[in-house]
Amino acid sequence: MAILNRTSPCEILDWDTTFFGFRVARVRGNTLTQERVRQMDAWCIRNGVRCLYFLARTDDADTAWLAGDNQFRLVDVRMTFEHRLPATVESARGDTVVRQASVDDIAWLQSIARQSYHDTRFYFDPNFARHLCDSFYETWIKSSCKGYADRVLVAELDGAPAGYITCHLDKQPHTGEIGLVGVSDQARGRGIGRTLVISALEYLSTQGMQKVRVVTQGRNYAAQRLYQRCGFLTTTVQLWYHKWYVHSETI
């Protein structure tokens, strides 16, 4: 069960814990002090945490030094991009067919997912087994097709899925999000990624969204260039750390 005490320095992540088979938690807040580190360690040991995620600010030198001195390992640079939608979004061009995904596409999309996210923090951290990383994204795209995402768009080549993009709506601040983007190895270099992003912007615009956010990795230069070419600008840069507690029991 999740730890509900809002005064605690960390929180258990139920989905990650269930998926990976050991307790995973996340630090509350984005800075460190030596006292906070002491509290985190005590909390994680008490609650049987094996892996602790920490998403840090990039402009706090004390946090960076404390993370390195206390066995937090830098595993990713998290870059958030934002696009403010104009009144009219350009249409996706070219001969590529883009349509809404169906459950019949899931196996195809899972095969694309297995090859699309090797730049992410889970693959970068050797403590996560490679097959579990593959399964993590296979499960994510399957859940997206079954309702986790508000819309999953599929691009076809020669009648078969060659890529996908997932869209999420948050109607209160009129903000949409692009979740997963995947293009098969065989279809790369053919403009599929750009077509999918523009198609997602079209869909989100029709749903009343005024801006769209997307996140990628600092090491994923291709994705950064794609979003920049589609009109996105960088809004935040953060640092992902993982800390492992080797004496914690698995669940």
Explain how this protein is built.
- This protein is of the alpha+beta class.
- The chain has two domains: 10-77 and 239-244, no CATH class; 82-237, Gcn5-related N-acetyltransferase (GNAT) (Aminopeptidase, 3-Layer(aba) Sandwich), CATH 3.40.630.30.
- 33% of the residues lie in helices and 30% in strands.
- The chain contains eight helices and ten strands.
- It has helices spanning 14-20, 34-46, 61-69, 106-113, 121-124, 130-148, 192-206, 221-229, and strands spanning 10-12, 24-27, 51-57, 73-84, 97-100, 151-157, 160-170, 175-183, 211-217, 233-244.
- It has a ten-stranded mixed beta sheet, with helices on both faces.
- Strand 7 and strand 8 (175-183) form a beta hairpin.
- It starts with 9 loop residues before the first strand and ends in a 7-residue tail after the last strand.
- The mean pLDDT is 92.
How helical, in percent, are the residues?
Answer: 25-40%
- The overall average pLDDT, rounded, is 92
Total count of domains: 2
CATH topology tier name of the largest domain: Aminopeptidase
Number of helices: 8
Written as H for each helix and E for each strand, in order along the chain, the element string is: EHEHEHEEHHHEEEHEHE
**Assigned CATH architecture of the largest domain:** 3-Layer(aba) Sandwich
Which superfamily, in CATH terms, is the homologous superfamily of the largest domain? Gcn5-related N-acetyltransferase (GNAT)
Largest sheet: 10 strands, mixed
Looking at the structure, what is the overall shape? Answer: globular
Strand content: 25-35%
Give me the count of strands: 10
Q: What are the segments in which pLDDT stays under 50 over at least 5 consecutive residues?
A: none
Q: What strand order characterises the main sheet?
A: 1-2-3-10-4-9-8-7-6-5
Structural class: alpha+beta
- The top-level CATH class of the largest domain is Alpha Beta
Radius of gyration: 19 Å
N→C terminal distance: 11 Å
